[in-house]
Amino acid sequence: MQASKKYYTQQEAILKAAHYCAYQERCHTEMLQKLQEWGIYGDEANQVIAFLIENNYLNEERFACAFAGGKFRVKKWGRTKIKRELKARQVSDYCIKLAMKEIDEDVYVQTLQDVLQKQLTKIKQKHPAIIKQKLFQYALQRGYESDIIQDQIKLMELS
């Protein structure tokens, strides 16, 4: 027995969407997907999104900055991975550039050093070349830029 799907009036959809956006920053794509899950499509969905934007519940710049800052501070992601994820969410290039400015360069390099040091303790190899390769691959996977990774690995004492 399948439960019947609830249909929302436009006013109910607006209230529900506003609550959804107030709980956590959302991008336009996430909100549109959620509206479609709720059975709201086309012009009606566009009107809900327009309301959310006009009333500052939905703000792509704010979302991009919050996303980039959070993924960097909490998950220790590099700029490349953050940019890729923002693009996947169809965030504009302007907002992505704005979000990247939120990440302080000195803190970024220090975070990469911390990530590399932590990973170094997990590597069981003794050969310096293999250790460097493993560290490089790991940091690259985390979304850090190859030139910065190489510079930081050179500074590490690997014997």
Structural features, described:
The chain is mostly helical and 159 residues long. It folds into 3 domains: 10-54, Arc Repressor Mutant, subunit A (Orthogonal Bundle); 60-101; 105-155. It has 9 helices and no strands. The chain is elongated, with a radius of gyration of 21 Å. The mean pLDDT is 94.
Please render the helix and strand layout as text.
Blueprint: H1 10-23, H2 28-37, H3 42-54, H4 60-75, H5 79-88, H6 93-101, H7 105-120, H8 128-141, H9 146-155
What's the N-to-C terminus distance?
A: 65 Å
**Shape type:** elongated
Topology, number of strands? 0
Q: What profile does the largest beta sheet have?
A: none
Report the structural category.
mainly alpha
Number of helices: 9
| Tally of distinct domains | 3
Low-confidence runs (pLDDT<50, min 5 residues)? Answer: none
- Please state roughly what percent of the residues sit in beta strands, choosing from under 5%, 5-15%, 15-25%, 25-35%, 35-45% or over 45%: under 5%
Element string (H = helix, E = strand): HHHHHHHHH
Radius of gyration: 21 Å
Mean pLDDT across residues: 94
Helix proportion of residues, in percent? over 70%
Keywords for this entry:
159 residues; mainly alpha; Arc Repressor Mutant, subunit A; 3 domains; 9 helices
Structure summarized in a few sentences:
The protein has helices at 10-23, 28-37, 42-54, 60-75, 79-88, 93-101, 105-120, 128-141, 146-155. With 159 residues, the protein is mainly α.
